[in-house]
Design goal:
mainly alpha, transmembrane, 5 helices, Methylamine utilisation protein MauE domain-containing protein, transmembrane helix, 0% strand, Methylamine_util_MauE
């Protein structure tokens, strides 16, 4: 029983680390190829007007999220924020795919190599993992009912 409790306790931590690595990798990739990222955001049919601000806001947000996920006391907030950001990214992809003739990919690194279907599945997988992490963390912190 003790072994299963350890695994149960490590699962939210592992999910958080995986998400943190994703955000650090994505933000760093965007900043390493900053000009390309800026061009791609500028070509976005939805984000063109906001590209100058988003070019900095997206990687900074990803780094902040990674920090939240790495710090035990902010992990739950980080997982909720991960769901929010990944949902925004996924919604953006779906909107652009359905309402635009041109679909630039402003993702970083190897994520650029994914097709759009794979990208949506990838994002949804991280959303599901984050939900699982939240459920496990919240069940761990809920007080156990006392017996009369």
């Amino acid at each position: 029983m003790k072994g299963s409790k350890k695994i149960y306790a490590w699962f939210p931590f592992s999910i958080s680390m995986l998400c943190a690595i994703l955000f650090i990798y994505a933000a760093t990739s965007k900043l390493m190829d900053f000009q390309q990222f800026k061009i791609q955001l500028g070509q976005s049919p939805i984000l063109t007007a906001y590209a100058d601000g988003l070019v900095w806001m997206v990687p900074i947000t990803e780094y902040v999220l990674a920090l939240l996920l790495l710090k035990d006391s902010f992990r739950l907030v980080g997982l909720y924020a991960t769901i929010a950001l990944m949902t925004m990214f996924t919604t953006y992809i779906i909107l652009v795919l359905n309402f635009s003739d041109y679909v630039p990919c402003s993702c970083g690194g190897v994520l650029e190599e994914l097709g759009w279907t794979e990208h949506i599945i990838f994002n949804l997988a991280f959303i599901v993992l984050s939900i699982m992490g939240i459920v496990l963390l919240e069940s761990k912190t809920k007080p156990k009912p006392t017996q009369p």
